[in-house]
Amino acid sequence: STPIIADPKVTRHILSAFHLRASKRLGQNFLVDRSVVQGIVDAAELSPADIVLEIGPGIGTLTQGLAETGARVVAVELDKKLPAVLAETLKGYDNVQIVPGDILKLNIPEILELRAGERFKVVANLPYYITTPIIMTLLEQRLPIERLVTMVQKEVAVRMTARPGSKDYGALSIAVQYFTVPRMVMDVPPRAFMPAPEVTSAVVACHVQDVPTVRPQDEKLFFRLVSAAFGQRRKTLLNALTGAGLTKEESRAGLAAAGIAENMRGEQLSLVAFARLSDAVGDLAK
Ligand code: SAM
């Protein structure tokens, strides 16, 4: 049977056999710790009935763990050199399909061959510089995703899961918690990767909800207000909301109608309060 790829020796062997070097530009840090792979696989809660989209399989480390559950795995890899490597490292699995390309440019339901009503799970250990844009793009497209399990920098994980009142609570917390219920799964030290990154990482599991946590009448206005509130964190809401194109009078009237004190700051407002504010501002503009 195929050896476990999540191991320093096996990984070194694969890299040298294929004359590969981890590409910095593509953010390649390969997992070499099998307990981390297992933690990610467990957090995805997979069964053979599941369809998993893996983003950035690398040399197949996590892909192997996902495939072992019996789920159908479709893995999208940008590095043109890797599909040939993956064909070899994952040749023991008939439930894995490798799709070359950039996840941000592919039609996901099409590559997954999703049937009407079918949902899927997303698992990703991505380069840190594109994790947030990729997560947000997937969620905003309202794809039928059930769970999203991703490796991110520890500080990003803290922001994704932060609650109102915390210094880490901001636009990312609200965006993630609008669509999902996120949970911190585990911290991952640099030595779990080859090469080791400079920062500590963490795995976050996001359970995507059928219905968003709040339902503002105008979603665009809601996110505009959120972004204005956190664009100028130091300012009170009364002043910060002018960043969303409101006059000070409109800002004052909106806050009053929503029952929110003028001197509050964005980091103190729950999603429910932001939705109330957004509806109040929207009603006043009618
Ligand atoms: N999943 C492997 C692991 O855990 O060892 C590799 C992780 S490595 C941090 C990230 C992988 O994502 C690399 O193989 C890289 O080539 C790939 N990648 C980077 N940008 C991508 C994109 N836009 N679409 C798909 N894959 C991408």
Plain-language structure description:
This protein is α/β, with parallel strands linked by helices and 286 residues long. It has helices spanning 8-17, 34-44, 61-68, 82-89, 108-112, 128-140, 154-161, 171-179, 219-231, 237-240, 248-258, 271-285; strands at 30-31, 51-55, 72-77, 96-100, 120-125, 145-153, 180-188, 193-194, 201-208. It has a 7-stranded mixed beta sheet with strand order 4-3-2-5-6-9-7, sandwiched between helices. Helix 6 (128-140) links the parallel strand 5 and strand 6. Helix 2 (34-44) crosses helix 3 (61-68), helix 9 (219-231) packs across helix 12 and helix 11 (248-258) packs across helix 12 (271-285). It is elongated and about 70 Å long. Bound molecules: S-adenosylmethionine (SAM). The site of S-adenosylmethionine has 23 residues, from strand 1, helix 3 and strand 3.
